[in-house]
Write a structure and sequence with these properties.
globular; alpha/beta; 6-stranded parallel beta sheet; 13 helices; 30% helix
C-alpha cells in the first residue's frame, strides 16, 4: 500500500509499505476513503516537534472496514467508520468519563508503525473504544434528511464527516471547555481549521456574538459563514484593546485554538472576570501565570479533544442531517501521491486545510 512517511523537516514521502494486519483480537483494518493534513502535522514538518525518521504520519481518516479481530463488536467488514485521532480502550476511567483522548491505555494515530492515517489502509487498535460507526447510525433511520447509506454520501458530506475525526470535535471541545452558553460573547483565537470549527461550535452552543481573531480574508470569510459577528486582525496589546472596545469588559468565553505563547497570553487578557478559556491548541512555550488568573477568577480548561464522545453525543447527527458543514475548512483536494505538495501548500498558507482523496466508499 501507499503510505505517507515522515523523514525530517519538510521531508515527507509517499512510499510502499505492507498492508497492515490484525495483531490483537480488538483490532480492525480499514481501507481509507478520505484523510487530510492537520495543522498539528506541520509542527514536526517545520521541525518544531521531533518525530523519528521513517514514522508514518497522519491522524485523521474515514474509511470502510475490511477486517476485524475476534473481539470487535463496534463494526463489521463493510461498515463505514470515522477513526478519531485518539486510540482509546473504552474501558478505563478516562474513557468512561468521556475523556477518551486521555485514555489510560491508548495513544494517538500518526506515530506507531502501520498507524499513520495518510495511507491506503489503516490498522486500528482498541476498535471498540475508538471508531464511530456511520453505517450503524444511518441504519437506525432516525436522522431526518440523512442519506440512506454511506454510498449515498456526497463528497461534501464525506468532507464534513472527516472533520469529526479531529478538527470539528476539537473546535467543539474548545467551546465546551470555555463553557459557551446561549447569549454569550465568545472570542476565538486561531483561524486555521480548528479555530474556524471553534467559531461554528460557539454558534452551535448558542453564542450570539462571536469575535474571530483573523488577519486573513479567506479565513475570515469562512469564519463569517460559520457565525462570526466580528473579525479582529490586531495582535497583542492592540488585539486586547479592540476586544475591550467591542465588548466593554471582555468576553464571557475564550477559545484558544493555536497553542503559541503569543496567542495564549492574549487569550488570558480578553475575557471578563470569571471567564473561562477553552484551550485546545497544542502548547508550545506557554506558561500560565498563577496570580493573573487567580485575582480575575479566570478558568482554564481543555486539552486533547474527546472527539469520539462529541461525535456520538451530537456532532455525527448534525452532519448527517446536513445542519452543519465543517468540511468547508478544506480548500483544496489532493491525491495520496500529492501529499508532500499538500504539506508544502499548508506550510505556505496557500490552503487552509488539505483534503486527501484516497478511495471511494464503494471501492
Amino acid at each position: 500500500m501507499k503510505s505517507t512517511i515522515y523523514y525530517g523537516p519538510r521531508d515527507v514521502r509517499v512510499e510502499e509499505r505492507p498492508i497492515p494486519a490484525i495483531k490483537d483480537p480488538g483490532d480492525l483494518i480499514i481501507r481509507v476513503v478520505r484523510t487530510c493534513v492537520c495543522g498539528s502535522d506541520l509542527w514536526p514538518y517545520r521541525s518544531q516537534d521531533v518525530n523519528s525518521a521513517g514514522t508514518p504520519i497522519g491522524h485523521e481518516s474515514i474509511g470502510v472496514v475490511t477486517e476485524v479481530g475476534a473481539d470487535v463488536t463496534a463494526a463489521k467488514p463493510g461498515d463505514f467508520v470515522i477513526v478519531p485521532f485518539p486510540i482509546s480502550c473504552g474501558e478505563c476511567a478516562a474513557c468512561k468519563a468521556g475523556f477518551e483522548s486521555s485514555c489510560l491505555n491508548g495513544g494517538y494515530f500518526g506515530g506507531a508503525e502501520g498507524e499513520g492515517c495518510q495511507s491506503e489502509y489503516l490498522h486500528v487498535p482498541h476498535a471498540n473504544g475508538t471508531v464511530v460507526n456511520v453505517s450503524e447510525a444511518l441504519a437506525a433511520g432516525d436522522i431526518p434528511g440523512a442519506p440512506a447509506s454511506p454510498k449515498d454520501c456526497s463528497d461534501e458530506m464525506l468532507a464534513d464527516l472527516l472533520t469529526l475525526s479531529d478538527v470539528m470535535g476539537t473546535g467543539y471541545h474548545a467551546a465546551v471547555s470555555a463553557e459557551v452558553k446561549p447569549g454569550d460573547t465568545a472570542v476565538v483565537f486561531g483561524d486555521g481549521a480548528v479555530g474556524l470549527c471553534g467559531v461554528l461550535s460557539a454558534k452551535l452552543l448558542g453564542a450570539t456574538r462571536i469575535i474571530a481573531m483573523s488577519r486573513h480574508e479567506d479565513r475570515a470569510a469562512i469564519a463569517r459563514g460559520f457565525g462570526a459577528t466580528d473579525i479582529v486582525p490586531e495582535r497583542d496589546d492592540a488585539a486586547v484593546a479592540r476586544v475591550m472596545e467591542l465588548t466593554g469588559s471582555g468576553a464571557d468565553a475564550v477559545l484558544e485554538c493555536v497553542g503559541s505563547a503569543q496567542s495564549f497570553n492574549t487569550a488570558l487578557r480578553v475575557g471578563r472576570p470569571g471567564a473561562v478559556i477553552g484551550r485546545v491548541g497544542l502548547p508550545h512555550g506557554v506558561q500560565i501565570p498563577a496570580e493573573a488568573t487567580f485575582y480575575r477568577n479566570i478558568g482554564i480548561k481543555g486539552g486533547p479533544a474527546p472527539v469520539r464522545t462529541y461525535a456520538r453525543q451530537r456532532l455525527l447527527r448534525e452532519v448527517l442531517a446536513g445542519n452543519i458543514h465543517p468540511g468547508r475548512v478544506f480548500t483544496k483536494i489532493y491525491t495520496l501521491d500529492e501529499v508532500p505538495q499538500a504539506y508544502a501548500d499548508m506550510d505556505a498558507r496557500r490552503v487552509i486545510k488539505a483534503l486527501v482523496k484516497v478511495s471511494e466508499v464503494e471501492g
